[in-house]
Amino acid sequence: MSSSGSQPSIFSRIIAREIPATIVAETEHIIAFLDIAPKAPVHVVVTTKDPQYQNVVELAAGNSALLAELVAVAEQIAAERTNGQFRLVFNTGAAAGQTVFHVHAHVMGSPELTDHLGEDSLGTL
Ligand code: 5GP
């Protein structure tokens, strides 16, 4: 679903509390919630409340301070929920696996100590 279309994205509906999600962090501009279909022991979606940017490239060009705020929230979530080593994934484009066109990052990691972050421990999107 495109944020530029007539209907709000699924993330806008979560932000509006129209559909439930387990929200784990929220600031004035950013919200984070558990992914409904986790691909890792820790899998949190971090997104902007502003729906105008469809992907990280648009966000970087349009509001780099907001991108920095999103990354800071992601880092805080990782510090709280993972062993400190994590993936921060921005799928960009449908062919790359993006399904929600409202910019977001995936924080993926494990709370356990592990000597690698391979596909077997974190999976793929
Ligand atoms: P993308 O595929 O666009 O990179 O990531 C979208 C993510 O949003 C997917 O990992 C998907 O599981 C998650 N997702 C889609 N719909 C919902 C929902 O209604 N609630 C939550 N919590 N996550 C969702």
TrEMBL record:
GO molecular function, one term: catalytic activity
Domain HIT residue range list: 10-118
Pfam families: HIT (PF01230)
Catalytic residues identified in the record: H104
Tree of life domain: Bacteria
Motif (Histidine triad motif): 102-106
Protein name listed in UniProt: HIT domain-containing protein
Organism name: Cryobacterium flavum
Source lineage: Bacteria, Bacillati, Actinomycetota, Actinomycetes, Micrococcales
